[in-house]
Write a structure and sequence with these properties.
single chain; about 80 residues; mainly alpha; 5 helices
């Protein structure tokens, strides 16, 4: 079983690429996030909550609830 931190990072990367349609470089430019740190977060190597907030602030208002629900489901929190 993968760690919850890694699963959250994977979910955020999936959301960034599939829903936001942003490359890592574009995402970092848009959010002001550090490229290496955000990349580490997406790979489960960084667990600072500030990185999760970068993703949440990019989610359209009407999709924030679905993002949060998907995050918890993906990370196994709803089990």
């Amino acid at each position: 079983m993968q760690s919850r931190v890694k699963l959250i990072g994977m979910y955020c990367k999936k959301y960034r690429t599939n829903e936001l349609k942003l490359s890592l470089k574009e995402f970092c430019e848009k959010t002001g996030g550090n490229y290496k740190n955000v990349s580490a977060f997406e790979r489960g190597l960084a667990n600072n909550i500030q990185y999760l907030d970068l993703y949440y602030t990019q989610v359209p208002y009407d999709k924030k609830s679905a993002f949060a629900k998907g995050l918890f489901e993906y990370s196994g929190e709803d089990e």
